[in-house]
Amino acid sequence: MHTSGSSAKAIQKASAHLTDEPIKFPTCLLLNHKSPTFFLLTSHLYVYDDMQLGYSDWVDQEPEFSSKCFHVDNPGSICVALLPLDGRVITAKGIIEGGVCDCLLLTEKEMCFMEFKTNATSTETLRILDNAAKASEQLWHTYNVIIRPRCIDALKSSKELELLYVNFHVVFDRDLEVTGANSSLMDLQDQFLKDKKHSLFFDYGKTFE
After folding, report:
1. Is residue 176 predicted with pLDDT exceeding 80?
2. Which of 74, 85, 117, 121 is most buried, with most CB under 10 Å away?
3. Which spans in the chain are helix H?
4. Biggest alpha carbon distance in the chain?
5. Other C-beta atoms within 10 Å of 5: how many?
6. pLDDT digits 0-9 by tens, 137-160
7. E strands within the chain?
8. C-alpha closest to that of 201 among 7, 15, 3
9. Which domain holds residue 165?
10. How many domains are there within the chain?
């Protein structure tokens, strides 16, 4: 599945206006003192799925395996919280049924749910589409079934509310050149946006302003 970098950027730019209105969330619920959360202030972050640790981790220098990373460009060095959901934050058997996405990046303005498919090696279109569909289901289940209901319950008593934009990212190995500019993945993105009212991206990085 092949596309140019300029085409991928054009698709992202064109879809940016489709992002829905921000949603109120009690960030204190997500960032309580018991959560194994990493608070990051560096200008560049490389987030990846660590198979040995069993959960998502990060480094602030470009690693040799950068093709398997989600690059966070943070020019203002704002505070970015990384919550390694799968295997670390969310582990209860009664909760993980249905799937948990790998991690969540959280700022004062955004919640970015991420699922890594960087262990996939096939470039066959059907294989990629299957991985993409499964990843999108995991992302939505994590948000809509696990995170969102608990935040709604907390809204009743919490005074620490933030308006946050919510978006979803599927990350393949960059060497496979899988991006949302592919027509089949564009269809999946369009359907996700129509059904869920949130944006789904197939990309390798993001800039936080």
Report:
1. yes
2. 85
3. 5-15, 27-30, 93-96, 125-141, 148-155, 183-196
4. 49
5. 12
6. 999 999 999 888 877 666 666 555
7. 23-25, 38-40, 44-50, 55-59, 70-73, 80-83, 103-106, 110-117, 162-172, 199-202, 205-207
8. 15
9. 5-207
10. 1
